[in-house]
């Protein structure tokens, strides 16, 4: 009986080519597993059929949109997760969920091997395989593009020679990964970091320079979780989906970044994440209103480490789970409303309100009604400055 290879299938060039290649190379049956992560575009039934047309023995499609939003995007939002302070973990977040469903499919359908379409230069190989090592170390892993030295040109030639039903060609050389949280574009002329991205690179965002009326939106959070837009209760998936449309229509969320990859090289990546960037901006501002200063300072370091762990493929690590416990405690009072104006490629906070606010108007005001006792400030400043004053006096003696 032939081995059964469970393939993480996207419907694109690399994984479509992998189906007949693995079948020929390993004399195996290939089971294609595709996830609907809110990426939009193609109908998932078309992707399922494409896998079969490419030679898959079975083709499975999983609707994981709500699961992805609630269990992966929301934790990233509560952690204000931005790798290198800019990248909202578009691809990084989806990989552990894909791994989870690959393992489920392998156990249900008798798979003994798992395959992915990652190259040896990218981060995703680590994310897939570190996740598989944590969840199902008994499964063997194969990566055709990496293990058999596939180049993109070879993959295109292979697909054309066999008449595979794939749109990617030498005229459209971009490698694109997209989901609810955003869209990642690389390769092609973008590999020359002096080249600016052309407008046809983008799909989730409109040109921010085009004149249009601004869009005002109010986002409601409950313990750091977005629960409503403009007063309408929504699931996390619905919140992100709506903000992708509205912020995307205003050109919000375009990112052009030379990024430090886990494997040690720098890579030019273009991202568009309108909903994610608008939500992170809103969430960070609500934290400014509701989180005590020392907790907020410490959380910024936790947020950075959380983003690095997820970027590096360590979603299933004990440290990520422990950091989640800290973040959950820090979010207990992060509830309220944030008003934003979406316009000209920017998501600008214009209003905040919360029943858990630490902002006290009577202490903050400079007008009549000021409750802050300024007479106490002089002694505070003297004591606060004392260590620096003593050190300066010592250094003056030495000099």
UniProtKB/TrEMBL annotation:
Which residues of the sequence carry a binding annotation for L-citrulline? 87, 92, 123, 127, 175, 259, 271
What are the residue boundaries of the Arginosuccinate synthase-like N-terminal domain, all occurrences included? Answer: 4-165
Annotated binding of ATP, by residue: 8-16, 117
GO BP: any one term: urea cycle
Q: In which pathway does it act?
A: Amino-acid biosynthesis; L-arginine biosynthesis; L-arginine from L-ornithine and carbamoyl phosphate: step 2/3
One cellular component term (GO) for this entry is: cytoplasm
UniProt keyword Cytoplasm present: yes
Q: Which UniProt keywords apply?
A: Amino-acid biosynthesis, Arginine biosynthesis, ATP-binding, Cytoplasm, Ligase, Nucleotide-binding
What main location does UniProt list? Answer: cytoplasm
Compartment annotation: Cytoplasm
Query: Record-annotated residues binding L-aspartate?
Result: 119, 123-124
Task: Extract the GO molecular function terms from the UniProt entry.
Answer: argininosuccinate synthase activity; ATP binding
Q: What is its EC number?
A: 6.3.4.5
Start and end residues of each Arginosuccinate synthase C-terminal domain: 174-390
Name the InterPro entries on file: Arginosuc_syn_C (IPR048268), Arginosuc_syn_N (IPR048267), Arginosuc_synth (IPR001518), Arginosuc_synth_CS (IPR018223), Arginosuc_synth_type_1_subfam (IPR023434), AS_cat/multimer_dom_body (IPR024074), Rossmann-like_a/b/a_fold (IPR014729)
- The answer, when asked if Cell division is one of the entry's keywords, is no
Catalytic reaction(s) noted: L-citrulline + L-aspartate + ATP = 2-(N(omega)-L-arginino)succinate + AMP + diphosphate + H(+)
Q: Coiled-coil ranges per the record?
A: none
Gene3D superfamilies from the UniProt entry: Argininosuccinate synthetase, chain A, domain 2, HUPs, Single helix bin
Q: Which HAMAP family match?
A: Arg_succ_synth_type1
Subunit arrangement?
A: Homotetramer.
Family assignment from sequence similarity = Belongs to the argininosuccinate synthase family. Type 1 subfamily.
What is the protein name stated in its UniProt record? Argininosuccinate synthase
């Amino acid at each position: 009986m032939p081995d059964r290879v469970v393939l993480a299938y996207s419907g694109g060039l690399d994984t479509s080519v992998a189906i007949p290649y693995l079948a020929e190379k390993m004399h195996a049956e290939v089971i294609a597993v595709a996830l609907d992560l809110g990426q939009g575009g193609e109908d998932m039934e078309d992707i399922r059929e494409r896998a079969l047309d490419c030679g898959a023995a079975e083709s499975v499609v999983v609707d994981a949109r709500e699961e992805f939003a609630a269990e992966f995007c929301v934790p990233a939002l509560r952690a204000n997760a931005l790798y290198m302070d800019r990248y909202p973990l578009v691809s990084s977040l989806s990989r552990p969920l894909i791994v989870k469903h690959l393992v489920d499919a392998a156990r249900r359908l008798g798979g003994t091997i798992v395959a992915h379409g990652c190259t040896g230069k990218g981060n995703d190989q680590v994310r897939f395989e570190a996740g598989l090592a944590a969840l199902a170390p008994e499964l063997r892993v194969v990566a055709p593009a990496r293990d058999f030295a596939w180049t993109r040109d070879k993959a295109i030639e292979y697909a054309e020679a066999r008449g595979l039903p794939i749109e990617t060609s030498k005229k459209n050389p971009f490698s694109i990964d997209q989901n609810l949280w955003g869209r990642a574009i690389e390769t092609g002329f973008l590999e020359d970091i002096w080249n600016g991205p052309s407008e046809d690179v983008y799909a989730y965002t409109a040109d921010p320079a085009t004149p249009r009326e601004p869009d005002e939106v109010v986002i409601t959070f409950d313990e750091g979780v977005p629960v409503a837009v403009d007063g309408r209760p929504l699931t996390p998936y619905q919140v992100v989906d709506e903000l992708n449309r509205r912020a995307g229509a205003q050109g919000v969320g375009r990112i052009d970044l030379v990024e430090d990859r886990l494997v040690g090289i720098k890579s030019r990546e273009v991202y568009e994440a309108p909903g994610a960037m608008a939500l992170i901006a809103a969430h960070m501002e609500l934290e400014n209103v509701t989180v005590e200063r020392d907790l907020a300072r410490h959380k910024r370091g936790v947020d950075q480490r959380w983003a690095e762990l997820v970027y590096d493929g360590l979603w299933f690590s004990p440290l990520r789970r422990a950091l989640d416990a800290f973040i959950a405690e820090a979010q207990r009072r992060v509830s309220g409303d944030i008003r934003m104006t979406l316009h000209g490629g920017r998501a600008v906070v214009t209003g905040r309100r919360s029943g858990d606010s630490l902002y006290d108007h009577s202490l903050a005001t400079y007008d009549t009604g000021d409750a802050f006792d300024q007479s106490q400030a002089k002694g505070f400043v003297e004591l606060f400055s004392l260590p620096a004053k003593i050190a300066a006096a010592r250094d003056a003696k030495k000099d």
